[in-house]
Amino acid sequence: MNTWRKTVAALAAGATIGIAGFGTAVATAQEPDEGTGGALSTQEQSDLVVMREEERLARDLYQQFAQKWGAQIFERISASEQRHYDAVGALLGRYGVSDPSAGLTTATYAEPQLQSAYDGWLARGLTSVEEAYAVGAELEAADIAELSTAIEVSDEDAIDRLYGKLRTGSEHHLQAFRAALTGEEPAGGHGQGQGHGQGPQHSE
After folding, report:
1. Which domain covers residue 90, as residue numbers?
2. Is the CB of residue 14 less than 8 Å from the CB of residue 155?
């Protein structure tokens, strides 16, 4: 969790001044067209950039874990992260903030510390399904904290509404991963040939 929070902080700070290769004018909002949102503060812009990449990172990790372990919890939550990623992307377009993930392939990140965080979490999660659950729990807990902070500093209703929904989704994901770690929620066929159940459907 500490690694992720340091990464998020570094990403937000870098977005404020613009990171070479990390999208085009990442935290510089264009003049909004008619029908788009109003101008955002630099912090609001950088928070959107962070949330976009965090949702992508979570999606990419969970897809890898689903392929490795066959645990349906990762399949469900990776689909949820894709929806979150798309929703943040819509706000980037609405407010004229450049997309930090534009032109990047899956599991590839322009910010070196973000790439390092992904690589480290992936390596851990591929050692055992339990470690994969633990990685998911760490990531979701950090995401909840970052979303809570972002809501406090945002004055935009549309952003606050989305962050609130994302936080609720992350809270459900965190509960699911913690339950999986304690054996309370069956993960569904993670390579041990067991006929596990589906568990609760977390689709936020």
Report:
1. 2-17+42-182
2. no
C-alpha dist (Å) from residue 55 to 59, 80, 88, 169:
6, 9, 9, 11
At residue 6, the 3 state secondary structure works out as helix
Residue 12 and residue 99 in contact, taking contact as beta carbons nearer than 8 Å: no
The reply to whether 33 falls in a domain is no
| C-beta separation of 38 from 156 below 8 A | yes
Cα–Cα distance between 200 and 196 in angstroms, integer? 12
| Structural domain includes residue 153 | yes
Residues 160 and 48: beta-carbon distance below 8 Å: no
CATH number at residue 82: 1.20.1260.10
Query: Measuring CA to CA, how many Å separate 97 from each of 43, 127, 151, 157, 193?
Result: 12, 38, 18, 17, 47
Kindly state whether residue 198 falls inside one of the protein's structural domains: no
How many domains is the chain partitioned into structurally? 1
55-77 pLDDT, tens digit per residue, is: 999 999 999 999 999 999 999 99
Report if pTM > 0.85.
Answer: no
pLDDT in tens, 111-131: 998 999 999 999 999 999 999
